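Could you help me review a protein record that somebody else here produced? What it holds is a sequence and that sequence's fold in token form. I have pasted the whole thing underneath without changing anything:
=====
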Amino acid sequence: MKATVFIAYIFLLMYFVVGVAFIYLFVLVVRALRKYIKSEPVRKEKAESAKSLGEVIKRYRTQRKMTQEFVAESLGVTRQAVSKWESGASDPSTTNLMALAKLFGVTAEEILKEVK
């Protein structure tokens, strides 16, 4: 009888500890999610300020509702070349950068100033 009561107390204590652990884990997850949600403006600002040349080119292209195909045909390069510029796999030559700037209606300096 004493052994079964002792085992029952052990199981009760074990369930209590597991329950407290789950509650603590839940509290930690909620805190992390709240912190993540509150940091959205900071993440957006950081994303806007840290631009590669490819990201800047893509932003100008999409703002002007141009396709990669259209940009490629206008510059006399392949669509894959434009894709590589935007993904950062390669950079456009100086001549192509000047042509991109003219196509987008900005100066090459404006494009390069946005690169961080």
Remarks:
- The mean pLDDT is 91.
- The radius of gyration is 28 Å.
- The chain has seven helices and no strands.
- The CA atoms of residues 6 and 12 lie 10 Å apart.
